[in-house]
Design a protein that fits this description.
Elements lengths: L11 H21 L6 H8 L3 H8 L2 H13 L11 H17 L1 H12 L5 H23 L7 H18 L6 H16 L1
Helix pairs in contact: 1-2, 2-3, 4-6, 4-7, 5-7, 5-8, 5-9, 7-8, 8-9
Length: 189
């Protein structure tokens, strides 16, 4: 297998190929299930040759990882509720709900399993950091005291991800609220 090529936002034909392959993966996952997917099946649905997929993604797991990272990308900035506590709590509750859902857990697994060099994990982390930064910047502009992004990741995101990955079970939104309120109390001291 050839070394994995970095996934960049392609343009032109390359973008169309990526989009059609990603669409094929999502459609087939719904139709036949993730475990039944094969590269030839995805290639046929996408209208490309299997060699195109192998050349670009290396193998099915790396393709699934790429699709997962794209699916984990936030679609919009976090809602502005006018207060750091409300903004960060709402974001953390939504993050926990999405990531701990069965599809969210599957995307996380796929993103990590097809990621030998950690690039996809880093991208997923960057998505969360960008969302958190938006919330913190808004709060700063309102004159509120705010922690830094890394502190929020360490005190809110990391515990939630640990529980999602290693302590599967029902996670309530109260857990996200507890983490955010603890962080904000500590940062205001």
């Amino acid at each position: 297998m050839s070394p994995r090529k970095p996934m960049v936002r392609p343009g032109g034909r390359s973008a169309r190929v990526q989009e059609s392959v990603h669409d094929a993966v999502r459609e087939l996952t719904v139709e036949v299930g993730r475990d039944a997917l094969t590269v030839p099946m995805v290639a046929t649905r996408a209208g490309v040759t299997p060699s195109t997929i192998y050349r670009r993604w290396g193998d099915l797991q790396e393709l699934l990882s790429d699709v997962a990272v794209e699916r984990l990308r936030p679609e919009a900035p976090p809602e502005d509720r006018g207060d750091i506590d409300k903004d960060l709590t709402a974001w953390a509750e939504e993050f926990l709900e999405e990531m701990s859902s069965p599809p969210g857990r599957a995307y996380i697994r796929d993103a990590l399993l097809g990621d030998p060099d950690g690039t996809n994990a880093g991208q997923c982390s960057a998505y969360a950091a960008e969302q958190i930064d938006v919330i913190l910047q808004r709060a700063r502009h309102r004159g509120q005291a705010v922690p830094d992004v890394e502190t929020v990741i360490d005190r809110v995101v990391a515990p939630m991800m640990y529980r999602i990955l290693f302590r599967p079970g029902a996670l309530e939104s109260s857990y996200a609220r507890h983490l955010v309120h603890g962080l904000l109390r500590a940062s205001q001291s």
